[in-house]
Amino acid sequence: MNNIDLRNAILEAAAAAGIDLASPAANQTGIATVLARVIEDEAKLPLDRVDDAAAFLGCEADRLMLPALRQFFSDDAIALIERALPSALTPAEETWLKVIRAAAAGAVPPPTRFARNMVRAMLAQKD
Q1: Are 67 and 16 in the same domain?
Q2: pTM for this structure?
Q3: Could you tell me the CATH number of the domain that includes residue 42?
Q4: From the CB of residue 26, how many other CB atoms can be counted at a distance below 10 Å?
Q5: Same domain flag for 8 and 42
Q6: Which residue from 65, 94, 116, 122 has the highest number of Cβ atoms inside 10 Å of its Cβ?
Q7: Rounded Cα–Cα distance for residues 25 and 19 (Å)
Q8: Which alpha helices (DSSP H) does 18-74 contain, by range?
Q9: How crowded is the C-beta side of 77, counted as CA atoms within 13 Å?
């Protein structure tokens, strides 16, 4: 099957969390059994179980998602999927959203023409 990248990511996350996947105590959960089978190259990690695996290992799901995708898709296919999906927000964009949400009394309404022009003017300024 060739789950080397995923196996390494699982083992690193388990070691960081102090989890011994070979211990009987760890294998009492369903996701631990799945992870043990992935490590032994007997199974693939289902994509819908990545969040469960990350929660069990105490890591971010992002750490496991790309290696999990590589079990099923080529790098070209993954790149195509990434281009089709909206990009993640930059840290600066996240900060802007926090400022806007903090300034709003309740639900944030769609921007008016005036608001759009104000944002354009603010972003055009040089410090």
Answers
A1: yes
A2: 0.64
A3: 1.10.260
A4: 17
A5: yes
A6: 65
A7: 10
A8: 30-39, 50-57, 62-72
A9: 7
